[in-house]
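Quick check before the chapter quiz. The format below is the same one you will see on the exam, so make sure you can read both the input and the output lines.
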Amino acid sequence: MQKKLITRPQKVKYKSSFREECRKTWVYIRHHPAMYLMLLPGLFFLFIYKLLPLYGIQIAFRNYQIFLGDNPIDAIAKSEWIGLAYFKRLFSSSQFFKVLRNTLVISSLKILFLFPFPIVCAVLLNEIHSKLYHRIVQTVIYIPYFFSWVLIYGVFYAIVGSYGVINTILTSLGGGRIDFLTDAAHFLGLIVFTEGWKETGYNTIIYLAAITAIDSTLYDAAKVDGAGKWKQIWHITLPGISSTIVLMLILRVGNILNAGFEQILVFYNPAVYNTADIIDTYVYRIGLGQMDFSLSSAMSLFNSLVAFLLIVGANTVSKKLTKRSIW
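Here is the expected output.
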């Protein structure tokens, strides 16, 4: 009898609190219908392009034959289940370790040289007091973000190609031509440079938005105390956007196996396969070029699992070292 008297009020309290939370949530939804209507397109996109395709993960564990069924989806269920056979084949291939090495090298170079650059640009733009000049500079560095990689390739081919502007100038001065697109060392530098030229403007806006959220009275107090621009940047601006920097770094580390599929696919050629062939282009060539969908799916699944582990690991390290994290 005493046991019932102790446990029953707790269950009633739990149920009542749960119902109260549901009621409050429903009332909030009724008072803000426009917000949830705006949420529907995003949920629809998430369901169609992110959740439904998860059914295709099992291709990595089946001997997938696209013509076994009435349609490609029906063929998944009718294909033979072979477990981890394609993963064993993948990890025993020397080609796998080559593309993994290339992916890590290209991604590491992009992180090392390109991650700090938008932060520097955002800090410098924030110090420009002329609104007109600020808008002009911001627009100029932001415009390339809207260009497709095909268009960017055409622009840089006209500049650094065998008969482009740079090589034409070099030969007219008596020098030799530089093979930017076919020499491995120059090609990696070109990949990093074009990535920075295209993406820096977009990332700069993210940091500028974080800077505008800093309390302006902190700068006024620093001026009163005699702090110059560099001290204001070091002690106010950078600490003020540190959470954004940590967030962007965690996301970038989590995507270290994503070295830029579209960019590499457009720029690379057989002459630089040994240094430029990355995981995504390898999956593309094996999956669509050789119709080996199961092996390419195994590679993609491996890529996703590693990215997930890297994000969790980077978030954990950041939480312990800087007390800042995504969750």
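If your answer matched, good. Residues 168 and 174 are 10 Å apart (CA to CA).
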